[in-house]
């Protein structure tokens, strides 16, 4: 597929996802199909990238894209799948951290983020519930992107 055609297809599907988000009732299916399709089309770019470059980087980004798609699908389901969606996004971001920081050998920044994460989870009261613990996790891992 030519680049212009591929990019045009991604744009059209993304616009359909946005339009579908504003539709009520039976029109909502457009959003449910187009949003994951957009993510998968973008993931296909990572899959087909030439030159291949670093195989670990490529696989980690692709895994992150697929986990992000799974998180989107979980959050769109008519059942309460918030926590599984949150976990999928957490795992996706761990893949991105590994890819953009040249693996888990990233050093002190990644180690410090995990220490802060462990402390925030340990110090959270059980009365706060699962959502608060998830929010603690979401506070910690972006720090690993900033520290060198």
Task: Tell me the layout of helices and strands.
Blueprint: H1 3-22, H2 29-48, H3 55-76, H4 82-100, H5 108-122, H6 129-140, H7 143-146
Textual characterization of the structure:
With 148 residues, the chain is mainly α. 76% of the residues lie in helices and 0% in strands. The chain is built from 7 helices and no strands. It has helices spanning 3-22, 29-48, 55-76, 82-100, 108-122, 129-140, 143-146. Helix 2 packs antiparallel against helix 3, helix 3 (55-76) packs antiparallel against helix 4 and helix 5 packs antiparallel against helix 6. The longest helix has 22 residues, at 55-76. The chain is flat. The N and C termini lie far apart (39 Å).
Summarize the structure.
With 148 residues, the protein is an all-alpha fold. It has helices spanning 3-22, 29-48, 55-76, 82-100, 108-122, 129-140, 143-146. The chain is flat.
Shape: flat
Radius of gyration: 18 Å
Poorly predicted runs: none
Biggest pleated-sheet summary: none
Which percent bin holds the helix content? over 70%
Which structural class fits the helix and strand makeup? mainly alpha
Total number of strands:
0
SS field, number of helical segments: 7
What proportion strand? under 5%
First-last Cα distance: 39 Å
Average residue-wise pLDDT: 79
Output the helix-strand order: HHHHHHH
